[in-house]
Amino acid sequence: MTTVPFPRRTTSPEPDGGRVGIIDIGSNSIRLVVYDGPARIPAILFNEKVMAGLGRGVAERGTIGEQAMERAIVALGRFRQLADQMQISSLRTVATAAVRDASNGDAFLARLRTLGLEAELLSGEQEAAMAGHGVLAAIPEADGIVGDLGGGSLELIRVAGGEVHERASFPLGVLRVAPLRAEGPRVLDRAIGVALGSLDWIEQARGRPFYLVGGSWRALARLDMHLTEFPLPIVHHYAISTDRVHQLLRIVAQIGKKRLKAVDGLSSSRIPNLRDATALLSVLTRRLGTSEAIVSAYGLREGLLHSSLSADVRAQDPLITAAREEGRRQGRFPEHGDLLDRWIAPLFGDEPLAVARLRNAACQLADVGWRAHPEFRATRGLETALHGNWVGVDARGRAIMARALYTSFGGQGPVSPIDLLCTVEEQARADRWGMAMRLGQRLSGGVAGALERSRLALQPEKLVLHLKSGDHGLYGEAVERRHKLLATMFGRRATVAQD
Questions:
Q1: Burial (Cβ within 10 Å: 0-12, 13-18, ≥19) of residue 497
Q2: What's the CA gap between 132 and 122, in Å, rounded?
Q3: pTM over cut 0.85
Q4: 20-121: which CATH topology?
Q5: Which of 95, 243, 248, 459 is the most buried (most CB within 10 A)?
Q6: What is the CATH code for 317-498?
Q7: Sign of the C-alpha dihedral, residues 285, 291, 297, 300?
Q8: How far apart are CA 102 and CA 98, in angstroms?
Q9: Model pLDDT for residues 468-492, shown as the tens digit of each residue
Q10: Helix residue ranges, H only, 184-256
């Protein structure tokens, strides 16, 4: 039997610590994000961005321009009021490269204090560390180099083993790339070569992934998803091969703004810098010998939250934690997901841990469709897994979970885009999970007792459901039918035994 080392609650969930807000003052944008929910993976309640462009004047003249400063102050005043009205228990304001490098940065921070905002001015190293923590919050197994591209700076961070290691910050933000490229075709390449040459740890990550943080690189990923007709428009964990990165450099140089504006999810404010962001990524991946570029939707803001957690909380699986919370909110019976996963696990004893965690996540969501109309419960389950705000899982994993839930709620036959994202074998495995979940839900009525007193066993010719003598009355017609369907999926016959 596969043992899955995910922490399981045995009591009701602890109350949340209250809403947390982060104001991130970057070189391109200023953003307020409000979080609530489990500390390991809080949900985003509110997210608003203003493209203030503080870094543009810094790149050109060394100062924050008057118009940009006024635009920022207006936005920050609004954010401060919203934070008060949303009853945020903790509001943290941080400023990065533009304010750090501007000759009038102190004057800008003084104006923030008149709004009641005491901003932390992060050093380049602190900014890098938080970006690394952000990637680990969303992709705990990350092993490679994180690249956080802002308007004013580029941070490079070594991550491995769930920890942030060496890091460095360079004045190579996307707003600074255009002047370098204007000096000649090889100037950017030489500048990056000098930057990387100063890092004696960079060789440790040669041949490993490069994790993309920052709006400009997310915009590039959205363009690639559009061009390749990728069937799931979720940018987090989207992977781009290094060869494709170099192809995109040529594509972006030729594609027109009108076509770019037609790309779903591609912010028009990112279009002017797209070519420079792509050129920078192309040079970096070539010089680093990167295996692939992987997008992280999490960055500095989530890193600020993640870095403040205890080691025990950080160690929690973000996918399981989020799925368990969603199951608790939408399901009828708390903690049923963990119990259901343990109940069906004996049928899947040969599964590797990476596969078993997807099964566990699907079980956490096994009751999310009950409020939907019966005709649409399968669709609700599919959409929850496929389109949920999950991290710690790629598109293929989402599709496998979605297929399991679709089957568990009675869905049958092929369904797009699942059939485009995972193999026939993976879909068959997910169907077995779903049918096992469906059997457990029908036998137990969604409550704990029947599952705690019964067990499944896979034998060479039989799929045996062991029941206590007092529970045989639960084996009604609907349970028998689902038992037989599940047994057929395993090439066995259904048998009931008394414990």
A1: exposed
A2: 14
A3: yes
A4: Nucleotidyltransferase; domain 5 (3.30.420)
A5: 95
A6: 1.10.3210.10
A7: negative
A8: 6
A9: 988 999 999 999 999 999 999 999 9
A10: 187-197, 215-228, 242-254
